[in-house]
Amino acid sequence: MLTNLRHLVEADFARTGSRRTIALTDGTLRDAHQCLWATRMRTEHMLPITRRIADAGFGAVEAIAMVGFDAGVLFLNQDPFERVRLLADRITTAPLRAAVRSNLLHGFYPQPDDINELFVERMFVNGIRDFAVLDSLHSWDNVAPGIRIAKRLGAKVTIALVFNLAPGYDDDFYVRQAREVIDRFGVDTISLADAGGSLTVERTRTLVPALRAAIGETRLELNTHCLTGMGPQVALEAAVCGADQILTAVDPLANGNSLPSAQMMARDLRALGFDVDVDDRSLDEVGDYLGKLAAQLDYPVGVPAEYDPANYQTQYAGGAMTNLEAQLKAAGIADKLPAVIEEIGSVREELGSPVMATPFPAIVAAQAVMNVLNAERYAVVPDEVKKYVCGYFGALPLPVDDNVKDLVMNNGSRDISETPPQLDPILPELRRRYGHLSPDEMILRYMYGDQKIDALVPVEDSFRVEQSIVELVAGLGRMQSTHNVRLVAPGIELRANG
């Protein structure tokens, strides 16, 4: 495979006389631990490697997504805005990116335009300079207000076109979506987002060139995951076919449910004949820290996945899979995971094959769990499922199975109107209630309630991974210093003369 790709790159170089540079976007501090650690990396875990990430030469660095807000407040008792500020203070060589899930600021329900606009503004004030915006129904009216605010402030906007294996999601569909967002918003980057790792090499060979031809000088990014084991091959193919940048994670937080490895991508892209302007030593130092951090916290590292064709039916996103496993374990029904995964594939098709990106993996999985736990399928219908069927999230691109729709409407909550309500402005009421607080705190209290925000604790920049004596002495030996060093620990004393 690499030989054929290398020949294509060489032919392109002979034709144009210039060698293409492929940029790497870093997802280590966002997507990677979302996929492998259920978004449980704390802010103080990130700070010791920010300088190395800044030095690594990434084109952009992902800092946070809405699930990072949720996990930060609900499970880690940390202020997500503080995380953004601390990262922005330390990573100044590349734009800091935030992933924005449509207009779903609070939970999985659409929120009024005014609070979404204020959120984008506050993220910019705190240091975000690249907004990666997705709407899993590709309903761009949902995200238009926030995008316009971001562009007015001078931030870059990346639009994620989420890949879906379903009828109607052909190359022409994605070309139309790309042209629409470029014409409407003047976005800076189109990201082909393959959250479930279901994009194949064969489809890449048609879809990426079609997008490349359609978007002109707008940058094209590939965001794929490694659930099927094919992510790295798809990424290389995408680069040859015209992608400008690849979303990666620093190994050992790559592979498995996560992203392709930054170290491997840099090596293999260079072997194909591309220029890749990342610093390998910085990547290795970040990876060394992450390996020690994972061992200290007893967290998993990414392992290359075995090829499993079943993933192409469920198309379940990497981060969602890790969260689902954690939730079933917490509920004492981890043994139900195989049955739930199988049911997810069926529910997804019955609900019209929605794109399996936020919020729909959680919604489909909630229904699948109910179907597995109850004697009759759709006997219990989560509110989110009925709202989806009724169009609360936007127009459905494919119809819901008629029999399933009847079950959802009959068994779902009677309190949910079949017609989505109008979303009235909410900021006037919030300012009356929280006017004495900062805009950031007001947003957080609206999203999570007073009790959760009262429990937040400041970040202490004192975390260090544990090191063995051997590693410590070796590190001292590499230092260029004339100072004398004395190390004292229980039962041992070491002296080193500079």
TrEMBL record:
Pfam families: PYC_OADA. Keywords: Transferase. GO terms for molecular function: pyruvate carboxylase activity; transferase activity. GO terms for cellular component: cytoplasm. One of its GO terms (biological process) is gluconeogenesis. Residues 22-284 form the Pyruvate carboxyltransferase domain. Coiled coil: none annotated. PANTHER family: PYRUVATE CARBOXYLASE, PYRUVATE CARBOXYLASE, MITOCHONDRIAL. This is Putative carboxyltransferase. It comes from Rhodococcus wratislaviensis NBRC 100605.
